[in-house]
Amino acid sequence: MVKALVENSNFVNLTNEELMVVDGGGFWQVTAATAGAVCIGIAPVVGVVAGIGGSVVGTPVVGVAIGVGAASGMVAAGASMLDWATK
């Protein structure tokens, strides 16, 4: 089967690192991808909670600014983890 794939030019050579990930060595990639997805998923909740807290302490404008900042920070952290996990 492998010989047939090589002869038909349908075979893709993988690096040793890629083979380790395919072979079950990608625990940290899976962990980082899951954490990144969770961070992005809960970003709206974090933004709303932080915004409410900011509104209580300051004005509604302060609450909106704090909420947007907190949510964008969560999305940035999640995107960074997903970027690392998929390389």
Rg, Å, rounded: 21 Å
Question: What spatial form do the alpha-carbon principal axes imply?
Answer: rod-shaped
Structural class: mainly alpha
Q: Residue share in helices?
A: over 70%
Number of strands: 0
Query: Order of helices and strands, N to C?
Result: HHHH
The end-to-end span amounts to 29 Å
Uncertain regions: pLDDT < 50 for 5+ in a row?
A: none
- Mean pLDDT over all positions: 83
Number of continuous helical runs = 4
In oligomeric terms, what are we looking at?
single chain
How would you sum up the major sheet? none
Strand content: under 5%
Top keywords for this entry?
mainly alpha, rod-shaped, 87 residues, 84% helix, 4 helices
Q: What is shown here, in short?
A:
This protein is mostly helical and 87 residues long. It contains 4 helices and no strands. The relative contact order is 0.15.
Could you explain the architecture of this structure?
There is one protein chain. Helix 3 (27-57) runs antiparallel to helix 4 (60-85). The chain has helices at residues 2-7, 16-25, 27-57, 60-85. The two termini are 29 Å apart. The model has no long low-confidence stretch (mean pLDDT 83). It is an all-alpha fold and 87 residues long. The radius of gyration is 21 Å and the shape is rod-shaped. 84% of the residues lie in helices and 0% in strands. The longest helix is centred in the middle third of the chain and has 31 residues, at 27-57.
